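Hi, here's the filled form for the chain we discussed.

Project: internal
Contact: R.S.
Residues: 459
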Amino acid sequence: MKKRIISSVMAATMVASLAACGSSSSQSTTAAATEAAKAETTAAAAAETTAAATEAAAGGDEAVTLKWALWDKDATVYYQPLIDAYTKEHPNVSIEMVDLGSTDYSTVLGTQLSGSGSDFDVVTIKDVPGYMTLVNKGVLEPLDDRIAADGIDLSQYKGITDQVKISDKLYELPFRSDFWVLYYNKDVFDKAGVDYPTNDMTWEQYDELARKITDTTAGSEVYGAHYHTWRSTVMLDGILDGKATAVDGNYDFAKPYYDMVIKQQDDGVCMDYATLKTQGLHYSDAFAQGNIGMMNMGTWFLSTLIAKIKSGEYTDCTNWGIVKYPHAEGVEPGSTLATITCLALPTSAPHKDAAWDFIKFVTGEEGATVMAGTGNIPAMSNDKIVSSIASMDGFPADDTTSKDALVTTHTYLEMPANDKSAEIETVLNEQHDLIMTESEDVDTGIKNMNEGVQAILQK
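And the returned structure, exactly as it came back:
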């Protein structure tokens, strides 16, 4: 900036000197050039002052305290490491965590941001319905101009940010993204003499593999597959081709997956859904029993599984691995489901430039490296970050199969942004329950999904 000011002054001086060597009529030209030089110098100095102020707000000498709204402060391992890493580079910045609790976090945050006394600089976004509510209230600032100005490459988020744009504007950036993989118990496969699953399996190959390792002998059952009671474990297997989402109003794509799982259930390949609901059996406890060959579940289970094996609580699933999520014929391996946790900038933020700098850090490569070091999956990824996660003590030490499972090609949100997502979720969950308990057949359940959600969308 200083070089530009000096150049401006020199240029103006040269113009004045040349004019002085000409006729007397050049005096007015000289005066004009001098005034132009003064004006340009003043403008450049003002620009430098503005730039300096912006720099000071994020990383200069001016002390700044940012208030960060979040939940489960004491139970979440990555908050403090992220803060420590950022403030080490920006010693003038202090970050105050404000824990709003996890139970009603989105509701409390919406109430506070809508009030006149809100002074949060950065807010964590917990889920898509909560995000939609905040955007509709007008309390979050669009980030598109800042993203463009800083040249942030959104492709590093594997398509996630496209799914949370509202009216073609982006109001949040993800920093955590748990995606779905296939967990498997190597001992179950070894006992059956069957090869392990791979990182490139179609759903048909997966079904065939599950049946090979199943043992329906009463009292010594081995289940080739396991599905938790969430709708996402079955219905959303059909969105990985990118042609449909959970909010479109047509769920014909889900029929092959419901057909497959109901048939597995009837044949004893997986546990009975109604029994799971009645018993309230958690997926982690089911896998820990040691008689489940494969289980589709999110990467959030990694740290739990590793910790409980280390503590000695889990003893029957210690020889395990992960592979990429199965896919439909013609879909690229590594396409998977995802959930995200994001950061946003309130319209009422007192220190917007400094807050944006912190958001960029947490959602970018530096923050991702910190996240990976705590055993959590960051939203953006590269080879360095994948290697960091795979090097965790307790991560499967196989040839590279489990490490390669961490590399995704495209991630699809379980529930993309839609202002009617909460109502849609209710209809889909009700019909999922009826299908899986076989209270209604698959065709009827999907027909009811289509009609119920289309009625909501047409309101």
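Let me know if anything looks off before we file it.
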